[in-house]
Please model this.
Amino acid sequence: MTPTRPPTLTVVVPVFNEKDTVREILRRVRASPVDKEIVVVDDGSTDGTRELLAAETGDDLRVILHEQNRGKGAALHTGFAAARGDVVIVQDADLEYDPAEFPALLAPILDGRADAVFGSRFLSGPHRVLYFRHRLGNGLLTFLSNLATNLNLTDMETCYKAVRRPLLQALPLVEKRFGFEPEVTAKLARTGARIYEVPCSYSGRTYEEGKKIGWKDGVRALWCIWKYGVLRR
Model:
């Protein structure tokens, strides 16, 4: 029997208590015109999310369960280890990012220009107008990350990071929560990876709608910029 060729893309979807959106995000991911597999990592949901996932079927989908909540970064580590695609991309389950944009994110990698592509919410894509303090904080974290890594990113904290799988799986990632973003950025920069940015749209949600990131995550991000971007140089 001829071995099945790995898919072009592995979409890793970390999930925690997203029963209102998880089925819709899977529908949107499946609708994206890219050869792909989907790896969902449920990080200890207690709101009925995993029961909905149990009803999802298809050869393109694998669901991995964490018995306890361990954090977004930990869920991503599990998903990355299970990935088989040529490229891996992170897709949050909260409908803030649009999987229809996968082809644009993949293009610089597939045509040989890039090893990683970040989808920037601040280049030219449409975005929902929300919290000024979040924009200010994101800009500060991106600025400090750029100082530490000598990159010129516009959106270090973006969810949309597409990376060649062998490169991603070789990174020694340790952050269990939202410190993943500055950590993976610093470690990609240290490898000399060719990083591109492309515009992406953003339909941010409010805290009332389920947004989870808070000020403590911002403090942790500052520490991670220092730890992985400055101390390890």
About this structure: The domain at 9-231 is CATH 3.90.550.10 (Spore Coat Polysaccharide Biosynthesis Protein SpsA; Chain A). The radius of gyration is 17 Å. The first strand starts at residue 9 and ends at 15. The chain has eight helices and seven strands.
